[in-house]
Amino acid sequence: MLVTYIEAIRQAMDEELGRDRNVLLMGQDVGVLGGAFKASAGLQEKHGADRVVDMPISESLIVGAGVGLAVQGMRPILEMQFIDFISCGFDQIVNSAATLRYRHGGQTACPIVVRGPSGGGVHGGLYHSQNPEAWFCHVPGLKVVAPATAYDAKGLLKSAIRDDDPVIYFEHKFLYRRIKEEIPAEEYLVPIGKAALRKEGRDLTVITYGAPVHAVMKAARDMATEVDIEVIDLRTLLPIDWATVKASVRKTGKVLIVHEARLTGGIGGEVAARIAQDCFEELDGPVMRLAARDVHTPFAPAMEAYVLPNQEKITEAIRKLAAY
Amino acid sequence: MLIDVVMPQLGESVVEGVVVKWLVEAGEWVAKDQPLLEISTDKVDAEIPSPSAGRVTQILVKPGETVPIQAVLLKIETDPVASPPAPEAAPKWDEETEGFPGHMARTSGPPIPAPPRVEPSASAPPPPPTTGRIRITPVVARMAAEQGLDLSKIPGTGIDGRVTRKDVEEYLASGQAASAAPAEVRSAATPAPAKVPAATPPKVARAPKVALAEGDQLVPWTPIRKKIAEHMVRSKQTSPHVHIFAEVDMHRVAGVRATSKKEGVNLTYLPFVIHAAAKALRETPIMNATVSGESTVLKKDIHIAVAVDTSSGLLVPVLRHADRMSLKEISAAMDDFGARAKSGKISPDELSGGTFSITNPGIKGNLFGTPIINQPQVGILRLGQIVKRAVVIDVDGEDSIVIRPMMYLGCAYDHRVIDGVAGNGFLYRVREILEAGDFS
């Protein structure tokens, strides 16, 4: 069936709400309105107002209530209307949800999913364009995923809901309706912790995730006669699938990491450091990174294009690394 | 003026919309903000107001049609009277406020002085010489070591002439490496050309990775293991080893041990061998030597390195001036090394500077073994197991069979430097000293 990325998310929640009575969806406007982006359209009607619950504008409350419900055996999906506002629920996530299993010596779990629209490229300005995934990758006890396709959006969300640990699910709003993809009609899951090899190549590996996957793929296709590029979509950012990363580095010897989040302190730094340490003798060039400039995402389209990575910048970085 | 009315983007994720119904017709006069049509997106439904007063000249989209955002929906000929005023002139650049509107940026007080430009106090270092320097990447370094390649022969196509993995692969594929290989072998076989042979140690060729079967255990090399591996490979590559063996009657040594024991001093066999070796080395200078370029350095001092097995690996502390030490001093020094090696308290200084080596595999050392020379030395002794054996000796001119503690003493020497007469003479002399039993 042909679905958009956001429809894949809606289907995942619909199916899981139908499968397991313990699954709940909580967030601002998720019920009557069906979500600010319509990710939960029709779900309250179908599953009831006690399971698809409109919440006040308090992310701390949404996550905190979710943690309490999870301790009591529920599996709440907690929607942040924009992932930018996840910072208001930060303490509940990193100090409460992430530590719960550890604090109780493994005797309890915290099966929550915190999900919401992230990312720029939509002229949303600095409060509606953020990519805060790196903050959470620093926290043991969490899992962090960032799907780039409708197939993964659905399969990873279903896996996240079924996971016994807190999963932060970054969906990219630029992809919501720009992707229309054929996905299986029958049920499937995408495992957390497994990267996807999007394209095989011999000369150079590009490691990416989220919206830039598409720009990288386009660049790889457009440059096919020039350089043979391998593309890895990490999909899960915590824990990272190092086996897939290292296997590719050993093959190509050159690595470019692309993400839309800012450069400094981003996931790319961690990936680059691991590669430098574990694959040093396989490297045929410096591990390079392409990310957003270290500024807030501007509102003006021209400025936003200047700040965020795009196909043109990716192509330039690939050329530079290929020639090294 | 003719203006376009386009499909607006109603929401950040919306890329298209459907025209539901037209509220105006072509040719109709409309006021500013008058609803023109209804549209629907998967986020919201909305009416599109007219951006200006005027007359609708053309309707381009039929009801029910889906169009992308920014697509033109209709055209309006604006009323010249009601048309929007010309855009305001850009605000004048205000020197004082540097263009910021309002008073917030207005300066007050004296202007902040511009920071001075400071030249670096030391002159910049000259750029590194580029001639003769080969730029490579880590993978190329590894490939060159594994394949024994001379990188100066491989043309680099990377930035600044860097030799890339592709360059090495192409070089290997072209067969040029094969023709260059004999030269490599020749140069490896000639005596160490460098002034300090240890300066350019050949790397241990990395073994190919093996697949692990179920239950197999992968034990990564510790730093000390890597050092030992590198050292052993280097020694075997550097020195043509000759191994010789002497069968030594240790009964007089055993006698001295027994006497000492009565005096309360516990001696092992090792100090006797060290003592005998030191004495024999003094008489055979070529065995107490090292190689420098195409010369042999006969060392003045006799510093004997003795292998000690520790929990973290093989350590070889050095007994300095072993020829000047008494048996008891040697014994005490060895006990001290043994204890400190186990607790990891031997300093790096104590592990270097040996001129000859002795290895004692201990009680379970088996009959004999072929030791590897401790580079850059040229000789090494190895103690075998001491076992009682029936041996034939001469007693007052008569052949007699007696029971004696016997030991095979193994010796390796570097045939680059030492020939058979000197090598065999040395080992024979060690045996004589041990059998004579005079350790004063």
How does this model look, in words?
The complex is a heterodimer of chains A (324) and B (440). By secondary structure, chain A is α/β, with parallel strands linked by helices. Chain A contains twelve helices and 14 strands. Chain A has helices at 5-19, 43-47, 59-71, 90-97, 100-103, 133-137, 150-162, 212-222, 242-252, 267-278, 301-307, 311-323; strands at 2-4, 23-27, 52-54, 75-79, 113-118, 143-145, 167-172, 180-182, 196-199, 204-208, 229-233, 236-238, 255-262, 288-292. Chain A has a seven-stranded mixed beta sheet with strand order 3-2-4-5-7-6-12, with helices on both faces. In chain A, strands 9-11-10-13-14 form a five-stranded mixed beta sheet, with helices on both faces. Chain A has a two-stranded antiparallel sheet with strand order 1-8. In chain A, helix 1 (5-19) runs parallel beside helix 7 (150-162), helix 3 packs parallel to helix 4 (90-97) and helix 8 crosses helix 12. The longest helix of chain A is centred in the first third of the chain and has 15 residues, at 5-19. Chain B is an alpha+beta fold and 440 residues long. Chain B folds into three domains: 2-78, Beta Barrel (OB fold (Dihydrolipoamide Acetyltransferase, E2P)), CATH 2.40.50; 139-189, Dihydrolipoamide Transferase (Irregular); 223-436, Chloramphenicol Acetyltransferase (2-Layer Sandwich). Chain B contains eight helices and 18 strands. Chain B has helices at residues 138-147, 165-174, 176-189, 223-238, 251-262, 270-283, 327-342, 420-436; strands at 2-6, 16-22, 29-30, 35-40, 45-49, 54-59, 66-68, 72-78, 241-249, 289-292, 295-298, 304-306, 308-310, 313-315, 318-319, 356-359, 379-395, 398-414. In chain B, the strands form five sheets. Chain B has a six-stranded mixed beta sheet with strand order 9-18-17-16-12-15. Chain B has a four-stranded antiparallel beta sheet with strand order 1-8-6-3, with no helix packed on it. Chain B has a four-stranded antiparallel beta sheet with strand order 5-4-2-7, with no helix packed on it. In chain B, a hairpin with a 2-residue loop joins strand 13 and strand 14. The radius of gyration of chain B is 45 Å and the shape is rod-shaped.
